[in-house]
Amino acid sequence: MRIRSILSLAAAAATVVALGACGSDNSGSTSTSSGTAAGTSAATTGGGGGASGKIALLLPESKTARYESQDRPLFEAKMKQLCPNCEIVYSNADQDASKQQSQAEAAITEGVKVMVLDPVDSASAAAIVNRAKQSKIPVVSYDRLITGAPVDYYISFDNVKVGKLQGDALVKKLKQDGNAKGPIIKINGAPTDNNAKLFKQGSNDVFSQAGVDISKQYDTPDWSPDKAQSEMEQAITAVGKDKIKGVYAANDGTAGGAIAAMKSAGMDPTKIPTTGQDAELAAIQRILAGQQYMTVYKAIKPEAETAAQLAFDLLQGKQPSGDVVNGQTDNGSGQVPSVLLQPVAVTKDNVTDTVVKDGFWTADQICTGAYKQACAAAGIS
After folding, report:
1. Which of 65, 241, 316, 330 stands the most exposed, by the fewest C-beta atoms within 10 Å?
2. Of the candidates 2, 45, 30, which has an alpha carbon nearest to the alpha carbon of residue 305?
3. Which part of the chain is the Periplasmic binding protein domain (predicted)?
4. Same domain, 305 and 271
């Protein structure tokens, strides 16, 4: 019953995706897909008990690789399975809150029936929700929590726990290396992203309890790897390259920027443990090569598919089953029914048992060129 419920939710979400992109003025970051010919309006009949309609999927940016490589295709595939004749309108805001506002307005004008929204800015996205509510369009807050507005559902991971996993892993490694108190450099995520605040909260709690010295700490605009690299360069100059014992990076993109800065400064990243998040392909390769210590694997497939099911249920005017919604989250406007999934810390020791076992990345994708030897040493073939 739980599996069927999740599948239904996934289908709904995919429909939302199609609607969101339909009316955008930014052709470079929008598209429309459906079970019928491209460009055809929403079908009147189809799978999912005859349901049909337009569903908007609005994603925030593409600098974080997962959105285009994982979230979007997984959501669309699940929605097509649940509702072959539903239309998905997709938009990516390219980290521009104003652009996302325009994309949402276009989707509403296009006639979407459900909106799945991953906000660029958690607070300013409240205006999008309020506008959708005026048109009686339910909104699913996807991955990042929208604050200050009455969203219908929220689906994400336990993001304080993500920060704690990162912090715990780094503290453990620092102790193993004989550097229990650091010092470390802390490169947090975008200040406009509510999830980044939660990652920061969880990791700071761990570092405070462990007595780890945070020499420099930055909030990274737009989650930009380039800006993370610049922040790390500033930290190296201020602290000294021989004194830094570890780096907290909030995601794999910022980790990549920090590692690039270390290499440019003549530092050996294999001796300076660096955290990450999202299990990006480049990060898994760096972990196997010893250049990044860990990442946090968030099973994006169930997240995207469950979002699709939520959207599909909302399209049909149904409530999701109680075993799918497993919590509530205070977003400043009220308690939002929530689906909170569990993240997993990944190091070199469990790459095989996590991202490879789940098919998130295949051995062929990971074990290319310079990484073949590292894969063989880790037993990945």
Report:
1. 330
2. 2
3. 55-319
4. no
pLDDT at res. 9: 43
For residue 39, count other CB atoms closer than 10 A to its CB: 10
Q: What angle do CA 13, 326, 298 make, to 5 degrees?
A: 65
Question: How many residues does the structure list for the chain?
Answer: 381
Q: Which two tokens stand for residue 208?
A: 């405070």
**129 and 165 inside one domain:** no
Tell me how far apart the alpha carbons of residues 305 and 328 are, in angstroms, rounded to a whole number. 20
pTM value is 0.80
Query: Taking residues 235-241, what's their average pLDDT?
Result: 97
Residue 206 belongs to domain spanning: 159-298+344-377
For residue 120, give the nearest of 63, 161, 78, 73 by alpha carbon: 63
Same domain, 250 and 372: yes
Q: Is the same domain home to 226 and 361?
A: yes
**Number of compact structural domains in the chain:** 2
Distance from C-alpha of 117 to C-alpha of 128, rounded to nearest angstrom = 9
Distance of CA 345 to CAs 33, 159, 166, 252, 264, Å? 35, 13, 7, 13, 28
**H helix or E strand, kind and range, residue 346:** strand 344-346
Distance CA 269, CA 289 (A): 10
Please check whether residues 292 and 336 belong to one and the same domain. Answer: no
Which three-class secondary structure state does DSSP give residue 26? coil
* Distance in angstroms (rounded) separating the CA atoms of residues 350 and 354: 6
Whose tokens are 């929590």? That residue is 145
